[in-house]
Every structure is written in C-alpha cells, then in structure tokens.
C-alpha cells in the first residue's frame, strides 16, 4: 500500500464527494481509482477489499476503510477538524449527519423513478428542516462549532452549493448562510477546487448513472 491516500469510487460525486472536499480543504493529496466496469468491482470484492461489498473505499494510513461517515470522521480527527473535546465532537457529528441525510437525497436523485417529486421533497425539507438550523447557528459565529473550522463547515458548504445548483435562489431567505458561503469559497484550497479542471466532480449525468447501474447490476429505478 503506497503512502498516498487512494480513493476507489466512480468518476462522479456520489458518496465520495464529501471525502474529496474534506481532503481538498486539508490539502491532503489523493489519487483516484475509478470503477468503470463490473469486473473491477468484482475484483475488489474478490480481493476482500470491501467489508460490506460497497464503495466508497479509501486506502489511508495502511488501512482499507469503508463506510463514508467513519472515513470522514477519521480524516477530520486526524487533521483536527473534529472539535477540541467530546462535546464539540458530538455537535459536529450531529450537524454532519443532518447534512449527510440531506445530501443522501441528492445522491439518489438521478436514480429516482420520479425525480421531479423527489426534488420537490428535497426543497421543502431543505427549507423547513435543515437550512433554518444552520442559519441560526451561523447568525453571529463564523463557524458552526467552537469558533473554528470543522468537518461540519466543510459539509455545509458542499451541501449548500449542491442545493443552489438544483434550486437556484433557495438561499435567499438565509443571509447568514450566504455570508458563510462567501467566506468559505475564499479559502484558497476551496477556491481552487471550485475552478474547472479540479478534482471536484460535475453533477451526475447519464453516463455516470449508466456506469453505476452496470457495475451494480441495477435494473430498476430506486423508489
Ligand atoms: N453506508 C454506506 C453505504 C455505501 C453504499 O451504499 N455504496 C453504494 C455506492 S454509492 C454501493 O456500493 N452499493 C452497492 C451495494 O450496496 O450493493 C456508506 O455510507 O458508505
């Protein structure tokens, strides 16, 4: 296993994108091995690399890690983006899990039988359940927890940008969140990540969906 972090996933956002965001903001270099065929997936399965037969898989520090959240928490912990004590950590985790619940809806959107009604549901949940929480937390403070950048801030930026791509104008009732975004995108590593040609992946397209359906033998839209 080389010393460099290696990401095994599709050449698309999905569950790996938050890990890419986190590594990028930390300026940790990583290589990507893209899954493009079912044979590659079967090889990872036969190697015993996929504990639960699922990706993301991240090779880091001599380990092969699966499960997105523990991977994010490990990296955040290692690079001090996970709070100074257990109270801060649990708060960061609560915010992070809420954001991941919201982003999970986007991850499955391209596979939905009725994408329009799924997007409507995302919009109302974002407006009523999620964004008000973060607007309140950031009215005054610059960061969500402990006056310092944490994993939760990185996920919040990713999530709000994702929301705006599909639902332009959704942030207009949330001025503190908009200011937060403005501050975050000026961080040099983030600003570079947002430029064309970076390792940030584009919105899912038909080719991405087709590859995933082939690799996992999916034949029907998801509910
Ligand atoms: N709880 C897991 C879920 C991983 C997951 O569902 N990965 C999908 C690809 S994004 C997968 O490998 N699906 C194949 C399967 O479940 O058989 C995580 O968050 O990493």
UniProtKB/TrEMBL annotation:
It comes from Crenichthys baileyi (White River springfish). InterPro entries: Glutathione-S-Trfase_C-like, Glutathione-S-Trfase_C_sf, Glutathione_S-Trfase, Glutathione_S-Trfase_N, GST_alpha, GST_C, GST_superfamily, Thioredoxin-like_sf. It is an enzyme of class 2 (transferase). Gene3D superfamilies: 1.20.1050.10, Glutaredoxin. It catalyses: RX + glutathione = an S-substituted glutathione + a halide anion + H(+). Pfam families: GST_C, GST_N. GO terms for biological process: glutathione metabolic process. The keyword S-adenosyl-L-methionine does not apply. Residues 3-83 form the GST N-terminal domain. Belongs to the GST superfamily. Alpha family. This is Glutathione S-transferase. Its EC number is 2.5.1.18. Residues 85-205 form the GST C-terminal domain. Keywords: Transferase. PANTHER family: GLUTATHIONE S-TRANSFERASE, GLUTATHIONE TRANSFERASE. It comes from the Eukaryota. GO terms for molecular function: glutathione transferase activity.
């Amino acid at each position: 296993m080389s010393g460099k972090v290696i990401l095994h996933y599709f050449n698309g956002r999905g569950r790996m994108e938050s890990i890419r965001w986190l590594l990028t903001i930390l300026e940790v270099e990583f290589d990507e091995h893209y899954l493009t065929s079912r044979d590659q997936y079967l090889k990872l399965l036969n190697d015993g690399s996929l504990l639960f037969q699922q990706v993301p898989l991240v090779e880091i520090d001599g380990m092969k890690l699966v499960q997105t959240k523990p991977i994010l928490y490990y990296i955040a912990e290692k690079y001090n983006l996970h709070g100074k004590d257990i109270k801060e950590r649990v708060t960061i985790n609560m915010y992070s899990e809420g954001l991941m619940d919201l982003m999970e809806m986007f991850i499955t959107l391209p596979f939905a039988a009725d994408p329009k009604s799924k997007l409507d549901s995302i919009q109302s949940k974002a407006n009523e359940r999620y964004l008000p929480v973060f607007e309140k937390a950031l009215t005054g403070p610059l960061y969500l927890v402990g006056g310092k950048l944490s994993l939760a801030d990185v996920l919040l930026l990713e999530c709000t940008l994702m929301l705006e791509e599909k639902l332009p104008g959704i942030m207009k009732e949330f001025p503190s969140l908009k200011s937060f975004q403005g501050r975050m995108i000026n961080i040099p590593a983030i600003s570079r990540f947002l430029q064309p040609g970076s390792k940030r992946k584009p919105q899912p397209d038909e080719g991405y969906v087709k590859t995933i359906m082939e690799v996992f033998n999916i034949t029907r839209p998801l509910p």
